[in-house]
Amino acid sequence: MKEQITLSEIEEKAKKVKITGSEALILSLIKENVDTIFGYPGGAIMPVYDSLMDYNKKIRHILTRHEQGAIHAAEGYARVTGKVGVCMATSGPGATNLITGIANAMIDSTPIVCITGQVVSSLLGSDAFQETDVVGISMPITKWNYLITKAEEIPEVIAQAFYIASTGRPGPVVIDISKNAQFGKLYFRYKRCTSIRSYIPGPAIDKNKIGEAARIINKAKKPFVLFGQGIILGGAEKEFRAFVEKSGIPAAWTILGKSALPTDHPLNVGMLGMHGNYGTNIKTNECDVLVAIGMRFDDRVTGDLNRYAKQAKIIHMELDPTEINKNVKADVAILGSVKETLPLLTDLVERKSYDSWIKEFKDCDKIEYEKVISKDFYPSKPGISMGEVMHLITEKTRGEAIIVTDVGQHQMFASRYAKMNYTRSFVTSGGLGTMGFGLPAAHGAKIGAPDRTVIGIIGDGGFQMTIQELATINQTGAAVKIVLMNNTYLGMVRQWQQLFFNRRYSETHLKNPDFIKVAEGFGIKGRRILERKELEKGLEEMLNYDGPFLLEVPIEKEGNVFPMVPSGASVSDIIINIE
Amino acid sequence: MKRSYTITAFSENHVGLLNRITIIFTRRHVNIESLTVSASAIKGIHKFTIVVHDTKEMVEKVVSQIEKLVEVLKAYYHTDNEIIHQEIALYKVPTKALLESNTLEKTIRDHNARILEITPEFAVIEKTGHKEDTQELFDILSKYGVRQFTRSGRVAITRSNKELLSTYLKEVDKAQSIHINDTINN
What we know:
Strand order of the largest sheet of chain A: 3-2-4-5-7-6
Structural class of chain B: alpha+beta
Largest interface: A-B, 19 and 24 residues
Helix content of chain B: 25-40%
Structural class of chain A: alpha/beta
Largest sheet of chain A: 6 strands, parallel
Radius of gyration of chain A: 24 Å
Helix content of chain A: 25-40%
CATH class of the largest domain in chain A: Alpha Beta
Number of helices of chain A: 24
CATH architecture of the domain at 3-83 in chain B: 2-Layer Sandwich
Mean pLDDT of chain A: 96
Distance between the termini of chain B: 52 Å
CATH architecture of the largest domain in chain A: 3-Layer(aba) Sandwich
Order of helices and strands of chain B: EHEEHEEHHEEHEEH
Distance between the termini of chain A: 71 Å
CATH superfamily of the domain at 3-83 in chain B: ACT domain
Low-confidence stretches of chain A: none
Shape of chain B: elongated
Oligomer: heterodimer
CATH topology of the domain at 3-83 in chain B: Alpha-Beta Plaits
CATH topology of the largest domain in chain A: Rossmann fold
């Protein structure tokens, strides 16, 4: 019946006649332009779900099969759309099932608002049924959290939640709402939050620092740009590209920065870090100026910090002041949103090209192609390699697809070999390395970007961690394409066991179910590849199929990802392969 | 090099902030030597005074993490010579010992301590000072039998002219009103 009257009429009325806290919550979400919620109902959130039913034309709720599936889907949605992902769960176990996803969103700076139900406030602390101290548990892994115990608090706190989650360095916010606040009544008035006195989303920009950085860059002989997700989060892809093209500096990316610059851009020299490219790692310790933009010098990127780019002057452009000097000491730190600081720097840098320096990268690429990539793409063994699957996917999709991965070897192959033409095209669990992320995140990505091809690249281990989300996919019918790389091993752990634990494969072999039957049981069409020659046809069938599709590819059991910077080694000690 | 640092943080007076702040120390495995929380000179703003023994690099990282908290307005750190600081200690000693000893009275006088209460059984002595001072008196009084002893966390004030936060708050107010004006003009 509420569909008959318009939203503004509802709002006008709610100023004069009290509405319930749960309805106020839904109206607040609508005012924040939320169109999708991933969630799972339960006792302590039932009033909200009841109100949601009145607004199902405005907000689509996607019923996942586990709360972890809900939050990873919200993350996938947020990562491809740039909007805040919203998920909802009940108190106690519902909320604790979100925890892994919250930690994942925190370390990967993904804007998420989690709404959790809580027991009535008079029962707080009494070990009531399904009571957990959600604010306490989630404190170290949220950007902010809050327990609402009165209905009147709802509009203001929700406004703050969206403001905090989406501004500055984004992150997850948990809003725990006691059941009495959901039932309680209030006059509803919504005002979006635009500032909080104790919270500075972006630090002030110091133009002197930009001048100082430009002088260093203009004198450099072998400058090197490292870029991260900060470019994407700041919406600074254009500004970044302009900087790189004017300065002529070769640029390499962290795993989360991958799609900020098209893969085929002539100045894109590849991936950094443990399984990144050979040249990017070697040249880190040979450049004279390192310009780090919107990245945080993660240990998987730097290797041993005591032997990391010691020869270079370090310029660090970053929004979050806590990242400055956290891992790598900056000679010049430029605080602020890169969307604002990059154009200022671009103005001051000279237009240059570094042909012989870039050739050094190309020379490394040749070595890597010969020793690693060509063998990944065209293996001499009968077993299929993850590299050749990724190569084929890239050829078939021509860099147009959104690639979502789980965690492990396939993730590194996807990151190394997937080509991307557009930003926000690579969704992966970078900082936390959360197995089970891939399937729900791919679903969320497809919901967020329905017009694009979304391919989830998932291993047989991680697939089984959130396999129940196949049911959710079947329910929404979202055309998620799943490429299951099945080597019957926890491949990355097995690779380390092979290299560092004397081939003692402790608990890494998996006796797997018949995945095609499982998929069919969930109502998802599937096809199993048996040998290499079927691969291309299989991929075509998957991509052309109108609906979700599972393509299972058997993978060579003892395939490894190379090159590799062993844990604790220097980036210049990168191992190209073990032959 | 590890040394003593006093961290001061100013925050909104919200539930759970103590927890938010202390988990930053827990996560980096930094031990808190002392902690005092109270209302600051500015209405509605609470002040945390935290003493740690660690390296400058670690303290800098911890302070910037504290400042990053949404509800924290500002955090600073100081070495001991940049601040004036005090702790308060209370000692409960048997009245009998007090009455029988001539030196005890002199000890209290010499240490600038004072007696807060005397009952037939015990006397409560108060001393403010640095930790070494209150400890010294504790060691002396121990001879007479200290029945209870308690020491507060550190309170500290900077050697600079004004509370650093009030200057900062003025800047925030100015910046936010500019921001609001910008929004209106646009």
